[in-house]
Specification:
This protein is mainly beta. The protein has 1 helix and 18 strands. The termini are far apart.
Length: 220
C-alpha cells in the first residue's frame, strides 16, 4: 500500500542530494491525471534521478505529496512520496542539524585507478548547487564517468570534509587517440594520502630533462 502521512524514512545517508532537475511536463493524458514530480533516489550507493510522470490517483479525492529529503543530525533521510486525502498538509521539512563529518575513508597511499577510453567525454553539464549544509561541507561537482560502454553523468553533491582534507576534482585528459580520467579523491595539503599530482610533476620534470639534454646535443 501507499505510505501514510509521517511515514518513516526509507533511506539514511551522509551524502546530500543534488539540486532538483528542471522538468518539462508533457500534456496530461486526461484531466484526472496528477503530476508526480521527479526526485533523487538512492540506488547502488549513489543518488539516481527518477523522472516525473503523470499518474492517476487511487481515489478522486486524493492528492500527491512529493518525495523529500531532510537533514537530521548531519545525515540525509529520504521520505518517499505518497497519496493522501485532499487537504492533508505535507509534513514540514526537518530543521537542518549539523554534525562534524568523519574524515573521508580513503586509504593512504592507494591511488585511484585511472580510466582509459577512446571516446571524447561530453562537455560538463551546468549545475546549481543546493544550499550548503554547513561550512565544513565541500561541493563535489558533477562529472562524466565511463560505465561499461557509455558515458554516465555523476551529479554533483555536498560532501562532509574531514579536518585537514581537500577535494581534488576528477579530470579527463587526452593522450594521443585515447582519453584518460583520473578519478576525484581526497588528499591532505601536506601530501598525506594519494600524491597523484606529484607523479605528474615528476613525469613533467623527467620530460623536461630529456628536452634539455636533446637541446644540448643539438647545440653541440
Amino acid at each position: 500500500g501507499r505510505p501514510p502521512v509521517g511515514a518513516a524514512p526509507v533511506v539514511r545517508v551522509r551524502v546530500a542530494p543534488p539540486a532538483l532537475r528542471t522538468e518539462v511536463r508533457m500534456m496530461a493524458p486526461s484531466p484526472r491525471h496528477v503530476w508526480v514530480g521527479g526526485y533523487w533516489s538512492w540506488q547502488g550507493g549513489r543518488h539516481s534521478w527518477v523522472a516525473g510522470r503523470w499518474d492517476l490517483p487511487p481515489a478522486p479525492s486524493q492528492v500527491w505529496v512529493e518525495a523529500r529529503w531532510a537533514n537530521e543530525g548531519g545525515e540525509w533521510l529520504f521520505y518517499p512520496g505518497y497519496w493522501a486525502p485532499a487537504g492533508t498538509a505535507a509534513p514540514p521539512p526537518v530543521a537542518p542539524t549539523y554534525v562534524q563529518p568523519t574524515p573521508p575513508a580513503y586509504p593512504v597511499g592507494a591511488p585511484p585507478a585511472e580510466l582509459t577510453v577512446t571516446l571524447q567525454p561530453p562537455p560538463p553539464r551546468p549545475e546549481v548547487p543546493p544550499p550548503q549544509p554547513s561550512p565544513e561541507h565541500v561541493w563535489v561537482a558533477g562529472h562524466w564517468d565511463w560505465e561499461g560502454q557509455q558515458y554516465v553523468w555523476r551529479a554533483g553533491h555536498w560532501e562532509g570534509r574531514g579536518r585537514g582534507w581537500i577535494w581534488v576534482a576528477p579530470t579527463w585528459r587526452q593522450h594521443g587517440p585515447h582519453w584518460k580520467m583520473r578519478p576525484g579523491h581526497w588528499q591532505r595539503p601536506d601530501g598525506d594520502g594519494w600524491r597523484g599530482d606529484r607523479r605528474d610533476r615528476d613525469d613533467d620534470r623527467g620530460r623536461g630533462h630529456e628536452r634539455g639534454r636533446k637541446h644540448d646535443r643539438d647545440r653541440d
